[in-house]
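Key result, reporting period 2: structure in, sequence out.
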């Protein structure tokens, strides 16, 4: 698989999200009742966002960047159905449970202020389905994150995204289900805490040509005592 692993010394979000979701991004839920608010899409330039978060001075010319999914040698071309083909902007879909829509809200908002991306939030943390399925210790029968993932598979905002952002339990449960059903057609994914690479109760059907970026902060229980080298 085309995988990049990044270890940073920043605080990564945990499974307990204590802040309200940001209102700066468009939100979609898997049920008919969707969150209220403005319908304007939010856009972002990945390069300028990286500069602002690193403290780099503004006003410098920004180099051109390749489309998402083509940054790595040998990465597959984005399918024709991807949303960017129709809008000219890459759609980043944030899978809310586990992605820190509260703790990371400022980052998602900053991304949404730029012009190259449309940011969508799918689902909601702490909803009835925001719990592990029964094959996890202390897991529960549906509704759970696996049934939520099955519903997500029916939604164009997920299937046709140019990039998915999942975190913590979303990387442990939701992304593996999407990979299992979509295979090589799955969108590229940023996986906060790298949950898909953990020793999970069920094997992960990692697509042969999946493009993924694993971001591991290392200051929560997902690290499980492993060294940086491990």
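The corresponding designed sequence is given below.
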């Amino acid at each position: 698989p085309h995988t990049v692993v990044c270890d940073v010394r920043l605080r990564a979000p945990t499974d307990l999200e204590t802040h309200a979701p940001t209102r700066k991004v468009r939100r979609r839920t898997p049920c008919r009742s969707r969150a209220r608010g403005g319908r304007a899409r939010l856009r972002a330039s990945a390069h300028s966002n990286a500069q602002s978060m690193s403290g780099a001075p503004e006003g410098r010319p920004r180099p051109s960047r390749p489309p998402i999914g083509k940054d790595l040698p040998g990465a597959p071309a984005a399918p024709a159905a991807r949303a960017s083909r129709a809008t000219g902007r890459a759609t980043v879909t944030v899978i809310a449970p586990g992605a820190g829509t509260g703790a990371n809200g400022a980052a998602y908002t900053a991304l949404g202020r730029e012009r190259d991306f449309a940011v969508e939030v799918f689902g909601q943390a702490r909803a009835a389905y925001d719990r592990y399925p029964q094959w996890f210790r202390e897991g529960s029968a549906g509704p759970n994150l696996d049934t939520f993932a099955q519903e997500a598979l029916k939604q164009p905002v997920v299937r046709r995204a140019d990039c998915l952002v999942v975190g913590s339990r979303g990387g442990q449960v939701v992304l593996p289900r999407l990979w299992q059903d979509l295979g090589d057609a799955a969108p590229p994914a940023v996986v906060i805490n790298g949950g898909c690479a953990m020793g999970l109760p069920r094997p992960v059907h990692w697509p042969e040509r999946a493009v993924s970026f694993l971001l591991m902060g290392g200051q929560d229980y997902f690290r499980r005592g492993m060294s940086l080298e491990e």
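The longest strand covers residues 2-7. Confidence is low (pLDDT under 50) at residues 8-24, 31-80. This case is discussed further under Risks and Mitigation.
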